[in-house]
Structure formats: C-alpha cells, structure tokens
Amino acid sequence: MKKCRRAAAQLLLTGLSLIFGFSACTIHENRSAGGLHHRSFIAYWPPPKNNHQLCLAVKDNIDVKGVVTTAGSEYVAKTSSPASQDAECLAIARKRSVRIVGKANLSEFAVTPAGLNDYFGTPHNPYDKVAGIIPGGSSSGSAAAVASGIADVAVGTDTAGSIRLPAACCGIVGLKTTFGLVSLKGVFPVESKHLDTVGPMGKDVAHVVQGMDLLQQGFAARYERAEAAKPSAKQIKIGRLYMNGTDPQIDKAIDHALAEAQFQVLPLDQTFETRWNQATKDGNTVAAAGVWISDQQYRNKWGVRLRTRAAILLGRLLYPGQYHRALHRRAEWEHALNEVFKKVDFIALPTLQVRPPAIPWFGKIALLEARFEPAKHGCGEFRRKSGARCAGSAETRVFPCCEPAASRAKVERSGIAKCRPPR
What we know:
By secondary structure, this protein is an alpha/beta fold. The chain has one domain (about 1-420): Amidase signature (AS) enzymes, CATH 3.90.1300.10. It is built from 15 helices and eleven strands. It has helices at about 1-25, 35-40, 75-80, 90-95, 140-150, 165-170, 205-215, 220-230, 250-260, 270-295, 305-320, 320-330, 330-340, 365-370, 415, and strands at about 40-45, 55-60, 100-105, 155-160, 175, 195-200, 235-240, 265, 345-350, 380-385, 390. An eleven-stranded mixed sheet has the order 1-3-2-4-6-5-11-10-9-7-8, sandwiched between helices. Strand 7 (about 235-240), helix 9 (about 250-260) and strand 8 form a beta-alpha-beta unit. The longest helix has 26 residues, at about 270-295.
C-alpha cells in the first residue's frame, strides 16, 4: 500500500508536469511591479539618493502594514486586503533606522524549491551571467535582491530549504533559524507546527549578523562573545558528512575550505548518513503534507498555478498517514544527532549536491520542480547543536542562535567559491 501511494504521488507529479509543460512554456512573464529590478520584488519602494539607512527586503509572505501580502500568488494578490499590521518579526526593524525597500518575490505560496514564478516573473539570478540558472526558492526574490545589491539584508522564510537553497544558488549567505526562535505571527504558513522559520539573508556573514539582530534582540552582541570564546578554527570539531551522489568537485571544494581554515575534521560514518537521509525524507514529507494542511483551500481557485496545485495534491497523498509516521521518527533522529554531537561541534555537508540547473524554456518546468530537492546542488551547509542551519556560497559560519557560548565556524571565500556555477 505504501509503495502504491508513493507511485501514485510520482505519477501525479509527472502527469501534471506534462500538462504544465504544454500549457506554459516560459517562465519570464511580467505582469506587475515585480518586473522592477529583474523581478526581485513584487512591490518596490526605492530609497532616496545618498541613503545611509540599512535597506531591508521582506519576503512577500510576511505581513507589512498597509500592503497586500500576496504569497507570490495572483489569486491572493487580487482577492486579499492590505495587512492591518506588521508581522511580529519586523518589530525590531521598525524601531531602528531600517528602510524597508520592498516585498520580495517568491514561489507561489512558498511551496516549490526552484524559485520560479510565472505570474510576477521569475527573479533573475544576479550571480549568473550566461546560463539562466534558477535563483532557488522559495525565497528567490530575497536572494536576488541581496545578491544584486538592491537590499543590504533580506528577511525570508525557510521550511525545507527556502532560505538556504536560494542563498546557495545566488552566492550569498542565508540562515535557517532554530524553530520557534522568531515569531511566525503574520507569516503566511507552510508547515507552521514543526518546520516554518523566519531568517536573515545577506551578502556575507556580517550582514547576516545584522539581519539576525533585527530578528532577535541582542544577537549581534552574543555573536561577538561567541567569536571571542573560540576565535580559532583549530578549537572546533567538524563532523564531515559525505552524501552519496554529490558532485566530486563540490565535495572537494568543501574539504579544501575546511582544511584551509584548519578545523578539526572528523568524517561521519555511513550509518549516520543513512539516518540523515531518512530524516531528510521525513522532513520533506512533513513539509509537503503541510502544504495540504495550509493551502488546500486554494487548490481549485482561479489563478493558482498548476505547479502549486500539484504540490497541494501531493501533500494530500502524504497526509495524514506518512506525515504522522515521519513525525513519529523524530525522537529516534534526535537521539542520533545527540550522539554525534557528543563528538563534534558542527556537521558540515553540501546544501545542494549538484550545480543549479538552467531554467527550461520549453516544457519540463514542473518536472524540474518535482525533481529539485534540498541536497541536490552545491555549497557548504553547517548544522549546529541548536538545530540552526546556515548556507552560503561566499562565506559560511554557524550562528549562536540559542546558546551564547556557541562557537564560530568559518568557511573561507577562496574555498567555497569553487563550487559556484561557472559565470
């Protein structure tokens, strides 16, 4: 029965992929202000000349008072009223001299990982000069805005990779915060009971620290104390997780960066990789089922794209059976992590295992979405004991999201640059 349900899910996605391939051949549609600045924004408010304020982009599934929160959807954009108040996660930014420059583009309902949006237009990946590669999603506009310099910092959301994937694809740094650390009130949900988080994105670690300080009071000071506590990489033990199917060049780049920074590196065994893979599958199952839980009311609405409907229907196949089984295995996975963290301070692995693919012009668009999963493309990711994850193409550190004594982990620019796609 389980195999039949999995087969049915795959057939559903493949069938809708073929339908979508003939019904919408290109992605680069532009129907709104989202076309400004290479479609990074759905609504954009340019700063004045000689602006000295920190420029903040806010993903458009996060409420900004007086503005419709579209969640990247034509239907929601045309049927919803402006938000009556800001999301709680913006409270610190409002108190400081921070300029919100726009609502950043995203995959519809933040449910697909390649970052495509055929109504507002797919954000251009500023890192890519020739190939037309995906920006990564769902926080595609946030990553593109930071990478292009339009925003200093962006606030995005991450359920199963939606900050880390676009950070890796666009050559910036992104942090999935520990679940529950930042308020989700005023955030359009995907799987808010277990996985949804709000986190910062920046061009480098320093800007991500600034962004995190806008989400958690006093974070920057705690980060400085954590750096001072362990200023040398030689004091930090890294558990290196090798994933089957990773591009050898990506593994080589990560290993070179870790060695150059002089971390203590301990390879993790195949047994832990097997458990990691199961946990990844379970996390993706919970996230996919969450799409059904949160978005089922939109499955038959006009303007909702077929890719999004496919994701909603996949969630229906996974909920409640596989969803609850995946949640049931959490305790076993937490025990496995705790055992590993008795030996190491961090776990390092690729955010994506192969290089970001090009956006297909004809057909195969939904098939790309169905096959594009976290852990398939290329740059460093660290997981710390607190559960926070950080990904980036230029420089990566793991941030002390829970414990002030958290130590520093740095991947130097020269190492990670090798796993970027060719210009």
